[in-house]
Amino acid sequence: MSVVTKTLITVAPTGAELSKTEFPQLPTTLDELVAEAKAAQAAGAALIHVHIRDDDARPTLDLGRLRATVAALRESTTLVVQLSTGGSVKDPLEARLAVLDAAPDSCSLTCGTVNFGDDVFLNPWPFMVDLFEKARDLQVVPEFELFDLGQVHALRRLLDTCGLPFGGRVHCDFVMGVPGGMPGTVEALVAAVQALPAEVTSWSATGIGRAHLPVAAAALALGGHLRVGMEDNLVYARGRVVQSNAELVERASRLATEMQRPPMSTAEARELLAVRAA
Ligand code: KMH
Ligand code: ZN
Fold this sequence. Notes:
With 278 residues, the protein is of the alpha/beta class. It has helices spanning 30-43, 63-76, 93-98, 125-137, 149-162, 186-194, 212-221, 245-258, 266-273; strands spanning 9-11, 47-50, 52-53, 59-60, 80-83, 106-110, 114-116, 119-121, 141-146, 171-176, 202-207, 225-228, 235-237, 240-241. It is globular.
């Protein structure tokens, strides 16, 4: 990996787990999502990791809605648009594969099955290979999501089996602190970074809940990039609930700038990840 002088900030504004009734500030309509995306870009985000909801604010992988979401985000921002292929733990694998038909710039690709709280986040090996190959065929850049150390080694197997993804870059994101995955500790992050395949060109990290800040600080210190957002964390500080994704992005931008690695622009992010030209 070359010397990292800027920070890619990813915003994950919605996720599939939180309830709009409990958290009305969660962006679940297209208008809310676009408004949060614009504010997040203004605050320093360059990539958006998108889950969408239906009219009742329940997670959906409806292809028409996904296409409309990609179009709306492209019209209002220059963010790299990454659609989640993880969806919710209830989504069938075929529907998760079909997400790529909405033609995003990037997609998530989780490198193995993991317990996810009381549920199971299913990512069998044949599904990983299908997703990798479909993404390459459609010129979509995958972001390899790594929830535990075993998944880092599964990424090694995936690259050995399939070769490099579209664009030739290999970007990973450590998702730490999910009950069932690796803990959100400095020790776990160091072990995971050390185990990364040599082909990896960049990585980011996010800590769930209380792991959010320690993981962000450790990632910056280790030369990694940042992912923040309500999908991962709803507590800004002790006793203070997050009100908008932009405030998490603003804090990440401040941290990165203080660490002499200011946020990169969306154009720089496109180059880093080698996504298709807009
Ligand atoms: N919602 C989780 C079950 C991804 O977006 O690819 C899976 C997830 C990962 O959020
Ligand atoms: Zn997600």
